Automatic annotation (TrEMBL):
One Pfam family recorded for the sequence: BatD
Signal peptide start and end residues: 1-21
Organism: Winogradskyella pacifica
Record flagged with keyword Signal: yes
Transmembrane segments: 447-465
InterPro entries noted in UniProt: BatD
Protein's name in the database: Oxygen tolerance protein BatD
Protein backbone atom coordinates (compact mmCIF):
# COMPACT_ATOMS: atom_id res chain seq x y z
CA UNK A 1 0.00 0.00 0.00
CA UNK A 2 2.81 2.33 0.89
CA UNK A 3 4.60 1.61 -2.44
CA UNK A 4 1.41 2.43 -4.38
CA UNK A 5 1.17 5.74 -2.50
CA UNK A 6 4.78 6.60 -3.40
CA UNK A 7 4.16 5.77 -7.06
CA UNK A 8 1.12 8.05 -7.10
CA UNK A 9 3.16 10.88 -5.55
CA UNK A 10 5.95 10.47 -8.13
CA UNK A 11 3.37 10.41 -10.91
CA UNK A 12 1.77 13.63 -9.63
CA UNK A 13 5.18 15.37 -9.38
CA UNK A 14 6.08 14.37 -12.95
CA UNK A 15 2.70 15.46 -14.24
CA UNK A 16 3.05 18.81 -12.48
CA UNK A 17 6.57 19.41 -13.89
CA UNK A 18 5.42 18.46 -17.40
CA UNK A 19 2.44 20.77 -17.14
CA UNK A 20 4.61 23.62 -15.88
CA UNK A 21 6.93 23.18 -18.88
CA UNK A 22 4.06 23.43 -21.36
CA UNK A 23 3.62 26.45 -23.56
CA UNK A 24 0.67 28.63 -22.54
CA UNK A 25 -1.09 31.06 -24.88
CA UNK A 26 -4.41 32.41 -23.70
CA UNK A 27 -6.75 35.39 -24.06
CA UNK A 28 -8.14 37.34 -21.08
CA UNK A 29 -10.71 40.14 -21.03
CA UNK A 30 -11.22 42.80 -18.37
CA UNK A 31 -14.96 41.95 -18.23
CA UNK A 32 -17.42 39.75 -20.11
CA UNK A 33 -20.37 42.13 -19.68
CA UNK A 34 -20.09 45.84 -20.41
CA UNK A 35 -22.17 48.79 -21.54
CA UNK A 36 -22.01 50.10 -25.07
CA UNK A 37 -20.36 53.27 -23.74
CA UNK A 38 -17.59 51.30 -22.01
CA UNK A 39 -14.28 50.01 -23.25
CA UNK A 40 -13.01 46.47 -23.10
CA UNK A 41 -9.43 45.44 -22.53
CA UNK A 42 -8.25 42.11 -23.96
CA UNK A 43 -4.82 40.61 -23.21
CA UNK A 44 -3.13 37.83 -25.17
CA UNK A 45 -0.61 36.25 -22.78
CA UNK A 46 2.14 33.68 -23.42
CA UNK A 47 4.88 32.16 -21.29
CA UNK A 48 7.36 31.73 -24.19
CA UNK A 49 8.42 34.26 -26.80
CA UNK A 50 6.95 33.71 -30.25
CA UNK A 51 6.75 35.11 -33.78
CA UNK A 52 4.07 36.03 -36.30
CA UNK A 53 1.38 37.01 -33.79
CA UNK A 54 -1.99 37.37 -35.58
CA UNK A 55 -4.83 38.97 -33.55
CA UNK A 56 -8.52 38.24 -34.27
CA UNK A 57 -10.46 40.57 -36.55
CA UNK A 58 -12.43 42.37 -33.75
CA UNK A 59 -15.24 42.70 -36.31
CA UNK A 60 -17.83 44.05 -33.83
CA UNK A 61 -15.46 46.44 -32.07
CA UNK A 62 -13.37 49.51 -32.83
CA UNK A 63 -9.73 49.26 -31.74
CA UNK A 64 -9.12 52.46 -29.75
CA UNK A 65 -5.77 51.47 -28.27
CA UNK A 66 -2.97 49.01 -28.86
CA UNK A 67 -1.41 46.79 -29.54
CA UNK A 68 0.69 47.48 -26.46
CA UNK A 69 3.41 44.97 -25.72
CA UNK A 70 4.76 44.21 -22.27
CA UNK A 71 7.48 41.72 -21.37
CA UNK A 72 8.35 40.28 -17.97
CA UNK A 73 11.47 38.16 -17.63
CA UNK A 74 12.94 37.43 -14.21
CA UNK A 75 14.38 34.66 -12.09
CA UNK A 76 13.27 33.88 -8.55
CA UNK A 77 14.72 31.15 -6.30
CA UNK A 78 16.54 29.67 -9.27
CA UNK A 79 13.38 29.44 -11.39
CA UNK A 80 13.02 31.48 -14.56
CA UNK A 81 9.70 33.19 -15.26
CA UNK A 82 8.82 34.72 -18.61
CA UNK A 83 5.65 36.47 -19.72
CA UNK A 84 4.77 38.47 -22.83
CA UNK A 85 1.44 40.22 -23.37
CA UNK A 86 -0.23 41.94 -26.31
CA UNK A 87 -3.00 44.29 -25.10
CA UNK A 88 -5.84 45.90 -27.06
CA UNK A 89 -8.56 48.35 -25.97
CA UNK A 90 -11.89 47.90 -27.75
CA UNK A 91 -15.05 49.99 -28.07
CA UNK A 92 -18.21 48.00 -29.01
CA UNK A 93 -20.07 49.11 -32.15
CA UNK A 94 -23.51 47.91 -31.04
CA UNK A 95 -25.37 45.93 -28.38
CA UNK A 96 -25.54 42.14 -28.43
CA UNK A 97 -23.57 38.99 -27.75
CA UNK A 98 -20.31 38.93 -29.69
CA UNK A 99 -17.59 36.32 -29.97
CA UNK A 100 -13.95 37.40 -30.15
CA UNK A 101 -12.33 34.75 -32.31
CA UNK A 102 -9.00 33.01 -31.94
CA UNK A 103 -5.59 34.67 -32.02
CA UNK A 104 -2.58 32.67 -33.30
CA UNK A 105 1.18 32.73 -32.73
CA UNK A 106 4.17 30.56 -33.64
CA UNK A 107 6.39 29.34 -30.78
CA UNK A 108 9.34 27.06 -31.55
CA UNK A 109 7.86 26.16 -34.94
CA UNK A 110 4.44 25.22 -33.52
CA UNK A 111 1.25 27.24 -34.03
CA UNK A 112 -0.83 27.98 -30.90
CA UNK A 113 -4.36 29.40 -30.71
CA UNK A 114 -6.44 31.01 -27.97
CA UNK A 115 -9.99 29.98 -27.14
CA UNK A 116 -12.83 32.20 -28.44
CA UNK A 117 -14.38 34.53 -25.84
CA UNK A 118 -18.03 35.66 -25.82
CA UNK A 119 -18.81 39.18 -24.58
CA UNK A 120 -22.25 40.63 -23.77
CA UNK A 121 -22.69 44.31 -24.70
CA UNK A 122 -25.66 45.98 -22.95
CA UNK A 123 -27.20 49.43 -23.01
CA UNK A 124 -25.14 52.39 -21.86
CA UNK A 125 -24.26 52.51 -18.18
CA UNK A 126 -24.18 55.61 -16.00
CA UNK A 127 -20.60 55.13 -14.75
CA UNK A 128 -18.57 53.61 -17.60
CA UNK A 129 -15.36 51.78 -16.64
CA UNK A 130 -15.65 52.93 -13.05
CA UNK A 131 -13.49 50.04 -11.91
CA UNK A 132 -10.72 50.57 -14.46
CA UNK A 133 -7.36 50.56 -12.76
CA UNK A 134 -4.75 53.30 -13.21
CA UNK A 135 -2.54 50.81 -15.01
CA UNK A 136 -5.29 50.07 -17.55
CA UNK A 137 -5.86 53.77 -18.15
CA UNK A 138 -2.14 54.29 -18.60
CA UNK A 139 -1.90 51.42 -21.11
CA UNK A 140 -4.78 52.87 -23.07
CA UNK A 141 -3.41 56.42 -23.20
CA UNK A 142 0.31 55.98 -23.91
CA UNK A 143 1.89 54.40 -27.00
CA UNK A 144 5.45 54.01 -28.28
CA UNK A 145 5.59 53.92 -32.08
CA UNK A 146 8.45 53.21 -34.51
CA UNK A 147 7.85 54.99 -37.82
CA UNK A 148 9.90 53.48 -40.67
CA UNK A 149 10.38 55.60 -43.79
CA UNK A 150 10.43 52.64 -46.18
CA UNK A 151 9.49 49.02 -45.49
CA UNK A 152 10.98 47.59 -48.71
CA UNK A 153 14.30 49.30 -49.54
CA UNK A 154 17.12 48.16 -51.80
CA UNK A 155 20.36 46.79 -50.40
CA UNK A 156 22.43 49.74 -49.08
CA UNK A 157 19.52 52.20 -49.48
CA UNK A 158 19.05 54.56 -46.54
CA UNK A 159 15.91 54.27 -44.41
CA UNK A 160 15.02 56.11 -41.22
CA UNK A 161 13.40 54.93 -38.02
CA UNK A 162 11.80 57.62 -35.84
CA UNK A 163 10.62 56.60 -32.37
CA UNK A 164 7.68 58.66 -31.05
CA UNK A 165 6.01 58.52 -27.64
CA UNK A 166 2.29 59.37 -27.96
CA UNK A 167 0.44 60.53 -24.82
CA UNK A 168 -3.27 61.40 -24.63
CA UNK A 169 -4.34 64.86 -23.48
CA UNK A 170 -5.65 63.67 -20.11
CA UNK A 171 -2.45 61.78 -19.26
CA UNK A 172 1.05 62.97 -18.41
CA UNK A 173 4.57 61.53 -18.31
CA UNK A 174 7.00 62.53 -15.58
CA UNK A 175 10.04 60.48 -16.63
CA UNK A 176 11.26 57.73 -18.95
CA UNK A 177 14.36 55.70 -19.60
CA UNK A 178 15.42 53.17 -22.20
CA UNK A 179 15.20 49.61 -20.91
CA UNK A 180 16.43 47.80 -24.02
CA UNK A 181 18.04 49.50 -27.02
CA UNK A 182 17.86 47.94 -30.51
CA UNK A 183 21.24 47.02 -31.99
CA UNK A 184 20.36 46.77 -35.70
CA UNK A 185 22.72 43.84 -36.30
CA UNK A 186 22.08 43.55 -40.04
CA UNK A 187 22.31 47.28 -40.72
CA UNK A 188 24.90 50.03 -40.76
CA UNK A 189 23.34 52.50 -38.34
CA UNK A 190 23.86 56.10 -37.31
CA UNK A 191 21.90 57.89 -34.58
CA UNK A 192 20.80 61.46 -35.26
CA UNK A 193 21.03 63.72 -32.22
CA UNK A 194 17.68 64.84 -30.84
CA UNK A 195 18.18 68.28 -29.29
CA UNK A 196 15.50 68.78 -26.68
CA UNK A 197 12.20 66.97 -26.47
CA UNK A 198 9.75 69.34 -28.12
CA UNK A 199 6.08 68.47 -27.60
CA UNK A 200 4.11 68.16 -30.86
CA UNK A 201 0.43 67.63 -31.57
CA UNK A 202 -0.68 64.81 -33.83
CA UNK A 203 -3.14 61.97 -34.32
CA UNK A 204 -2.97 58.37 -33.16
CA UNK A 205 -5.70 55.99 -34.35
CA UNK A 206 -7.81 58.98 -35.37
CA UNK A 207 -7.63 60.71 -31.96
CA UNK A 208 -5.67 63.82 -31.02
CA UNK A 209 -2.52 63.09 -29.02
CA UNK A 210 0.62 64.86 -27.91
CA UNK A 211 3.94 63.26 -28.81
CA UNK A 212 7.69 63.71 -28.46
CA UNK A 213 10.41 62.35 -30.73
CA UNK A 214 12.74 60.21 -28.61
CA UNK A 215 15.19 58.82 -31.14
CA UNK A 216 16.09 59.13 -34.83
CA UNK A 217 18.21 56.50 -36.56
CA UNK A 218 19.46 56.15 -40.14
CA UNK A 219 19.89 52.55 -41.34
CA UNK A 220 21.62 51.06 -44.38
CA UNK A 221 20.67 47.36 -44.80
CA UNK A 222 23.74 45.18 -45.36
CA UNK A 223 21.99 41.99 -46.48
CA UNK A 224 18.89 41.08 -48.44
CA UNK A 225 15.70 39.35 -47.34
CA UNK A 226 13.41 39.84 -44.34
CA UNK A 227 15.42 41.67 -41.66
CA UNK A 228 13.98 42.21 -38.19
CA UNK A 229 14.34 45.47 -36.31
CA UNK A 230 14.76 44.84 -32.61
CA UNK A 231 12.14 46.68 -30.52
CA UNK A 232 12.89 49.70 -28.37
CA UNK A 233 11.67 49.04 -24.82
CA UNK A 234 11.16 51.94 -22.41
CA UNK A 235 10.19 52.29 -18.78
CA UNK A 236 7.81 55.23 -18.41
CA UNK A 237 6.28 56.84 -15.33
CA UNK A 238 2.73 57.79 -16.37
CA UNK A 239 0.58 60.34 -14.54
CA UNK A 240 -3.07 59.25 -14.64
CA UNK A 241 -6.01 61.33 -13.28
CA UNK A 242 -7.66 59.78 -10.22
CA UNK A 243 -11.10 60.22 -8.69
CA UNK A 244 -9.63 62.26 -5.84
CA UNK A 245 -9.22 66.03 -5.62
CA UNK A 246 -7.13 68.33 -3.46
CA UNK A 247 -8.48 71.08 -1.18
CA UNK A 248 -8.63 73.47 -4.14
CA UNK A 249 -10.71 71.04 -6.20
CA UNK A 250 -7.93 70.06 -8.60
CA UNK A 251 -7.78 66.45 -9.79
CA UNK A 252 -4.99 64.48 -8.16
CA UNK A 253 -2.73 62.43 -10.40
CA UNK A 254 -1.62 58.87 -9.78
CA UNK A 255 1.85 57.86 -10.95
CA UNK A 256 2.00 54.45 -12.62
CA UNK A 257 5.23 52.76 -13.83
CA UNK A 258 4.65 51.32 -17.29
CA UNK A 259 6.78 49.30 -19.70
CA UNK A 260 6.10 50.22 -23.34
CA UNK A 261 7.67 48.94 -26.54
CA UNK A 262 7.61 49.97 -30.17
CA UNK A 263 7.32 46.33 -31.17
CA UNK A 264 9.49 44.57 -33.71
CA UNK A 265 9.30 45.50 -37.38
CA UNK A 266 10.30 43.50 -40.44
CA UNK A 267 12.13 45.21 -43.31
CA UNK A 268 12.05 43.37 -46.64
CA UNK A 269 15.33 44.28 -48.33
CA UNK A 270 15.46 43.88 -52.11
CA UNK A 271 18.61 42.74 -53.90
CA UNK A 272 20.09 45.07 -56.51
CA UNK A 273 19.12 43.94 -60.03
CA UNK A 274 21.60 41.76 -61.90
CA UNK A 275 20.48 43.07 -65.28
CA UNK A 276 22.80 45.79 -66.47
CA UNK A 277 25.14 45.53 -63.45
CA UNK A 278 28.61 46.83 -64.53
CA UNK A 279 31.61 44.58 -64.02
CA UNK A 280 33.36 47.27 -61.94
CA UNK A 281 30.37 47.91 -59.64
CA UNK A 282 31.60 48.21 -56.02
CA UNK A 283 28.28 48.57 -54.18
CA UNK A 284 27.67 52.35 -54.43
CA UNK A 285 23.94 53.16 -54.08
CA UNK A 286 22.58 56.69 -54.29
CA UNK A 287 23.11 59.78 -56.45
CA UNK A 288 26.77 60.68 -57.05
CA UNK A 289 29.20 62.84 -59.00
CA UNK A 290 32.66 61.54 -59.90
CA UNK A 291 35.83 63.32 -60.96
CA UNK A 292 39.58 62.84 -61.18
CA UNK A 293 41.70 65.95 -60.59
CA UNK A 294 45.46 66.59 -60.73
CA UNK A 295 47.25 69.45 -59.00
CA UNK A 296 49.19 70.12 -62.23
CA UNK A 297 49.83 68.50 -65.60
CA UNK A 298 53.27 69.98 -66.41
CA UNK A 299 56.32 69.52 -64.20
CA UNK A 300 59.95 68.42 -64.19
CA UNK A 301 61.30 64.99 -63.35
CA UNK A 302 61.57 64.16 -59.59
CA UNK A 303 58.96 66.85 -58.81
CA UNK A 304 55.64 65.62 -57.42
CA UNK A 305 51.99 66.11 -58.22
CA UNK A 306 48.75 64.97 -56.56
CA UNK A 307 45.96 63.08 -58.31
CA UNK A 308 42.63 63.02 -56.46
CA UNK A 309 39.82 60.53 -57.14
CA UNK A 310 36.65 61.98 -55.60
CA UNK A 311 33.03 60.85 -55.28
CA UNK A 312 30.46 63.32 -53.94
CA UNK A 313 26.70 63.30 -53.50
CA UNK A 314 24.23 61.40 -51.32
CA UNK A 315 24.19 57.67 -50.63
CA UNK A 316 26.22 55.01 -48.83
CA UNK A 317 29.47 56.98 -49.08
CA UNK A 318 31.24 55.11 -46.27
CA UNK A 319 30.28 51.65 -47.49
CA UNK A 320 32.05 51.20 -50.84
CA UNK A 321 35.57 51.42 -52.27
CA UNK A 322 36.78 54.04 -54.72
CA UNK A 323 38.20 53.03 -58.11
CA UNK A 324 41.98 52.59 -58.21
CA UNK A 325 44.36 54.87 -60.11
CA UNK A 326 46.51 53.23 -62.79
CA UNK A 327 49.45 55.09 -64.37
CA UNK A 328 52.41 54.17 -66.61
CA UNK A 329 55.25 52.31 -64.90
CA UNK A 330 57.62 55.25 -65.43
CA UNK A 331 55.65 57.21 -62.85
CA UNK A 332 56.26 56.40 -59.20
CA UNK A 333 52.96 56.27 -57.26
CA UNK A 334 52.58 56.23 -53.45
CA UNK A 335 49.75 54.76 -51.38
CA UNK A 336 46.71 57.06 -51.43
CA UNK A 337 45.54 59.19 -48.52
CA UNK A 338 41.85 58.51 -47.88
CA UNK A 339 39.64 61.37 -46.71
CA UNK A 340 35.96 61.45 -45.77
CA UNK A 341 33.87 64.56 -45.42
CA UNK A 342 30.48 63.01 -44.72
CA UNK A 343 27.54 64.18 -42.63
CA UNK A 344 24.53 62.02 -41.79
CA UNK A 345 20.98 63.31 -41.36
CA UNK A 346 17.51 61.85 -41.84
CA UNK A 347 18.10 61.77 -45.61
CA UNK A 348 21.18 59.56 -45.16
CA UNK A 349 24.86 60.22 -45.83
CA UNK A 350 25.85 63.33 -47.78
CA UNK A 351 29.24 64.78 -48.62
CA UNK A 352 32.31 63.43 -50.39
CA UNK A 353 35.08 60.86 -50.09
CA UNK A 354 38.42 60.89 -51.90
CA UNK A 355 41.72 59.09 -52.40
CA UNK A 356 44.71 61.37 -53.06
CA UNK A 357 47.74 59.81 -54.76
CA UNK A 358 51.22 61.38 -54.85
CA UNK A 359 52.94 60.83 -58.23
CA UNK A 360 56.65 61.43 -58.95
CA UNK A 361 57.86 61.13 -62.59
CA UNK A 362 61.40 59.83 -63.14
CA UNK A 363 61.97 60.66 -66.80
CA UNK A 364 61.13 63.29 -69.34
CA UNK A 365 58.19 62.66 -71.66
CA UNK A 366 54.41 62.67 -71.95
CA UNK A 367 52.44 60.11 -69.90
CA UNK A 368 48.70 59.54 -70.49
CA UNK A 369 46.66 58.54 -67.43
CA UNK A 370 44.05 55.91 -68.45
CA UNK A 371 40.39 56.85 -68.09
CA UNK A 372 38.86 55.84 -64.73
CA UNK A 373 35.20 54.79 -64.47
CA UNK A 374 32.86 54.82 -61.48
CA UNK A 375 29.57 52.86 -61.44
CA UNK A 376 26.65 53.24 -59.05
CA UNK A 377 23.00 52.25 -58.67
CA UNK A 378 20.68 55.25 -59.04
CA UNK A 379 17.65 54.91 -56.73
CA UNK A 380 15.56 57.47 -58.63
CA UNK A 381 15.71 55.63 -61.96
CA UNK A 382 16.37 52.20 -60.38
CA UNK A 383 19.15 51.61 -62.89
CA UNK A 384 22.96 51.51 -63.00
CA UNK A 385 24.92 54.54 -64.14
CA UNK A 386 28.56 54.98 -65.09
CA UNK A 387 30.70 58.14 -64.98
CA UNK A 388 34.12 58.21 -66.68
CA UNK A 389 36.91 60.71 -66.08
CA UNK A 390 38.44 62.87 -68.81
CA UNK A 391 41.76 61.93 -70.40
CA UNK A 392 44.74 63.33 -68.53
CA UNK A 393 48.26 63.69 -69.95
CA UNK A 394 51.17 64.40 -67.59
CA UNK A 395 53.87 66.36 -69.44
CA UNK A 396 57.36 66.04 -67.88
CA UNK A 397 59.38 68.90 -69.39
CA UNK A 398 62.88 68.45 -68.00
CA UNK A 399 64.79 65.43 -66.76
CA UNK A 400 66.74 62.41 -67.97
CA UNK A 401 65.44 60.34 -70.86
CA UNK A 402 64.41 56.76 -70.28
CA UNK A 403 66.97 54.12 -71.37
CA UNK A 404 64.81 52.99 -74.29
CA UNK A 405 63.92 56.54 -75.35
CA UNK A 406 65.23 58.04 -78.57
CA UNK A 407 66.28 61.59 -79.13
CA UNK A 408 63.17 63.42 -80.24
CA UNK A 409 64.62 65.44 -83.08
CA UNK A 410 67.52 63.21 -84.19
CA UNK A 411 66.00 62.53 -87.60
CA UNK A 412 65.39 66.22 -88.23
CA UNK A 413 68.98 67.39 -87.62
CA UNK A 414 70.33 69.37 -90.63
CA UNK A 415 73.99 69.94 -91.60
CA UNK A 416 75.51 73.44 -91.34
CA UNK A 417 78.71 74.92 -92.82
CA UNK A 418 81.47 75.63 -90.27
CA UNK A 419 83.57 78.76 -90.91
CA UNK A 420 87.02 78.67 -89.39
CA UNK A 421 89.35 81.58 -88.60
CA UNK A 422 92.81 82.10 -87.15
CA UNK A 423 91.43 82.65 -83.71
CA UNK A 424 89.09 79.67 -83.69
CA UNK A 425 91.30 77.51 -81.41
CA UNK A 426 93.13 80.38 -79.69
CA UNK A 427 91.88 79.29 -76.28
CA UNK A 428 93.83 75.99 -76.42
CA UNK A 429 97.19 76.10 -74.56
CA UNK A 430 100.14 74.88 -76.57
CA UNK A 431 102.85 75.13 -73.84
CA UNK A 432 103.00 72.60 -70.99
CA UNK A 433 104.06 73.21 -67.40
CA UNK A 434 104.95 69.75 -66.15
CA UNK A 435 106.03 69.09 -62.53
CA UNK A 436 107.56 65.96 -61.07
CA UNK A 437 105.30 63.77 -58.85
CA UNK A 438 106.88 61.28 -56.49
CA UNK A 439 104.62 58.83 -54.73
CA UNK A 440 104.76 55.43 -53.07
CA UNK A 441 103.92 52.56 -55.47
CA UNK A 442 100.37 51.17 -54.98
CA UNK A 443 101.55 47.58 -55.08
CA UNK A 444 102.09 46.22 -51.53
CA UNK A 445 100.63 49.40 -50.01
CA UNK A 446 98.08 49.40 -47.13
CA UNK A 447 95.24 50.15 -49.54
CA UNK A 448 96.30 47.28 -51.80
CA UNK A 449 96.30 44.71 -48.98
CA UNK A 450 93.00 46.06 -47.61
CA UNK A 451 91.27 45.64 -50.94
CA UNK A 452 92.80 42.18 -51.32
CA UNK A 453 91.63 40.90 -47.92
CA UNK A 454 88.12 42.44 -47.84
CA UNK A 455 86.52 39.78 -50.10
CA UNK A 456 87.94 36.98 -47.95
CA UNK A 457 86.65 38.63 -44.77
CA UNK A 458 83.22 39.11 -46.35
CA UNK A 459 82.80 35.38 -47.04
CA UNK A 460 82.24 34.29 -43.38
CA UNK A 461 80.00 37.34 -42.84
CA UNK A 462 77.89 36.32 -45.84
CA UNK A 463 77.71 32.76 -44.49
CA UNK A 464 76.46 34.04 -41.10
CA UNK A 465 73.85 36.29 -42.75
CA UNK A 466 72.69 33.41 -44.96
CA UNK A 467 72.31 31.09 -41.98
CA UNK A 468 70.33 33.69 -40.09
CA UNK A 469 68.06 34.15 -43.10
CA UNK A 470 67.57 30.38 -43.43
CA UNK A 471 66.74 30.13 -39.74
CA UNK A 472 64.23 32.97 -40.08
CA UNK A 473 62.66 31.39 -43.16
CA UNK A 474 62.43 28.05 -41.39
CA UNK A 475 60.70 29.64 -38.41
CA UNK A 476 57.17 29.14 -39.77
CA UNK A 477 55.45 30.11 -36.54
CA UNK A 478 57.59 33.21 -36.09
CA UNK A 479 56.96 34.31 -39.67
CA UNK A 480 53.23 33.79 -39.18
CA UNK A 481 53.35 35.95 -36.04
CA UNK A 482 55.30 38.72 -37.76
CA UNK A 483 53.01 38.64 -40.77
CA UNK A 484 49.93 38.75 -38.53
CA UNK A 485 51.29 41.73 -36.59
CA UNK A 486 52.00 43.62 -39.83
CA UNK A 487 48.52 42.82 -41.10
CA UNK A 488 46.88 44.08 -37.91
CA UNK A 489 48.82 47.35 -38.10
CA UNK A 490 47.88 47.76 -41.76
CA UNK A 491 44.13 47.44 -41.21
CA UNK A 492 44.07 49.45 -37.98
CA UNK A 493 46.23 52.36 -39.16
CA UNK A 494 43.23 54.63 -39.84
CA UNK A 495 41.67 53.83 -36.47
CA UNK A 496 44.94 54.65 -34.70
CA UNK A 497 45.02 58.08 -36.37
CA UNK A 498 41.50 58.79 -35.07
CA UNK A 499 42.20 57.88 -31.40
CA UNK A 500 40.52 60.45 -29.19
CA UNK A 501 37.73 61.20 -31.69
CA UNK A 502 34.95 58.79 -30.69
CA UNK A 503 32.81 58.76 -33.83
CA UNK A 504 35.72 58.71 -36.28
CA UNK A 505 37.66 56.13 -34.27
CA UNK A 506 34.86 53.56 -33.94
CA UNK A 507 33.75 54.00 -37.55
CA UNK A 508 37.35 53.45 -38.70
CA UNK A 509 37.75 50.50 -36.31
CA UNK A 510 34.52 48.86 -37.53
CA UNK A 511 35.54 49.41 -41.17
CA UNK A 512 38.97 47.90 -40.47
CA UNK A 513 37.43 44.79 -38.93
CA UNK A 514 35.05 44.40 -41.87
CA UNK A 515 37.82 44.91 -44.44
CA UNK A 516 39.96 42.35 -42.65
CA UNK A 517 37.15 39.79 -42.76
CA UNK A 518 36.52 40.52 -46.45
CA UNK A 519 40.20 39.95 -47.20
CA UNK A 520 40.63 36.81 -45.10
CA UNK A 521 37.26 35.09 -45.50
CA UNK A 522 36.43 36.35 -49.02
CA UNK A 523 32.86 37.29 -48.15
CA UNK A 524 30.98 40.38 -49.26
CA UNK A 525 29.80 43.12 -46.89
CA UNK A 526 26.19 42.20 -47.63
CA UNK A 527 26.79 38.78 -46.06
CA UNK A 528 27.95 40.13 -42.70
CA UNK A 529 26.15 39.06 -39.55
CA UNK A 530 27.54 37.89 -36.26
CA UNK A 531 26.31 34.33 -36.57
CA UNK A 532 27.91 33.83 -39.99
CA UNK A 533 31.19 35.45 -38.90
CA UNK A 534 31.29 33.20 -35.84
CA UNK A 535 30.57 30.02 -37.82
CA UNK A 536 33.13 30.84 -40.54
CA UNK A 537 35.90 31.61 -38.07
CA UNK A 538 35.23 28.45 -36.06
CA UNK A 539 35.22 26.41 -39.29
CA UNK A 540 38.65 27.86 -40.04
CA UNK A 541 39.87 26.54 -36.65
CA UNK A 542 39.91 29.86 -34.79
CA UNK A 543 39.39 29.31 -31.06
CA UNK A 544 36.04 30.23 -29.53
CA UNK A 545 37.69 32.67 -27.10
CA UNK A 546 39.26 34.66 -29.95
CA UNK A 547 36.00 34.61 -31.93
CA UNK A 548 34.12 35.84 -28.87
CA UNK A 549 36.62 38.70 -28.48
CA UNK A 550 36.19 39.65 -32.14
CA UNK A 551 32.38 39.70 -31.86
CA UNK A 552 32.58 41.75 -28.66
CA UNK A 553 34.74 44.37 -30.44
CA UNK A 554 32.11 44.65 -33.20
CA UNK A 555 29.42 45.10 -30.54
CA UNK A 556 31.53 47.77 -28.82
CA UNK A 557 31.74 49.64 -32.15
CA UNK A 558 27.94 49.61 -32.36
CA UNK A 559 27.31 50.60 -28.75
CA UNK A 560 30.01 53.29 -28.70
CA UNK A 561 27.86 55.54 -30.87
CA UNK A 562 25.25 55.79 -28.13
CA UNK A 563 27.37 55.94 -24.99
CA UNK A 564 30.13 58.26 -23.71
CA UNK A 565 33.60 56.78 -24.24
CA UNK A 566 36.92 57.79 -22.66
CA UNK A 567 40.35 57.91 -24.28
CA UNK A 568 41.42 54.95 -22.14
CA UNK A 569 38.48 52.84 -23.38
CA UNK A 570 39.31 53.67 -27.01
CA UNK A 571 42.95 52.70 -26.47
CA UNK A 572 41.89 49.42 -24.84
CA UNK A 573 39.54 48.64 -27.75
CA UNK A 574 42.31 49.42 -30.24
CA UNK A 575 44.82 47.18 -28.44
CA UNK A 576 42.24 44.41 -28.14
CA UNK A 577 41.39 44.68 -31.86
CA UNK A 578 45.05 44.54 -32.89
CA UNK A 579 45.70 41.53 -30.66
CA UNK A 580 42.54 39.73 -31.87
CA UNK A 581 43.32 40.27 -35.59
CA UNK A 582 46.82 38.99 -34.97
CA UNK A 583 45.52 35.88 -33.15
CA UNK A 584 42.95 35.16 -35.88
CA UNK A 585 45.60 35.41 -38.60
CA UNK A 586 47.84 32.98 -36.69
CA UNK A 587 45.06 30.43 -36.17
CA UNK A 588 43.28 30.61 -39.56
CA UNK A 589 43.60 27.40 -41.60
Amino acid sequence: MKSIKNIVIVFLVLATSIASAQVKFEAKVSKKKLGINERLRIDFEMNEDGDNFVPPSFANFDVVGGPNTSVSNYSRNGKRSYSKTYSYFLAPKSRGNFTIKQATIEIDGETYKTFPITVNVTAAVSAPNENATASEVASENIHLVAEVSKASPYLNEAITVVYKLYVSKDTGVSSWREKDTPRFNDFWSQNIDVKGFTVHTGEYNGEEYRYVILRKTVLYPQKTGALKLEPLVMEVTVEVPSNRRDVFGRVLLTRVPKMVTAGSRTINVKALPEEGKPSDFKGAVGNFDFKVLTSKTQLNATESLQAKIEVSGSGNLKLFELPKLTVPSSLEVYEPEHQENVRTNLSGMQGNISDTYTIVPQYRGKYPVPTISFSYFDLKTESYKRISSDDIVIDVLEGPMAANATTENAADTTKQTVNTSATTFAFIKTNSNWTSIKSEPFFKSTGFWSLLLVPFLAIPLAIIVRRKKDERDADVQGNRIRKADRLAKKYLSEAKKALGQKESFYLALEKALHNYLKAKLTIETSDFNKEKIESLLIERQVSKEVVSDFISILENCELARYTPITQVTMQNDYDKAANTISLIDKQLR
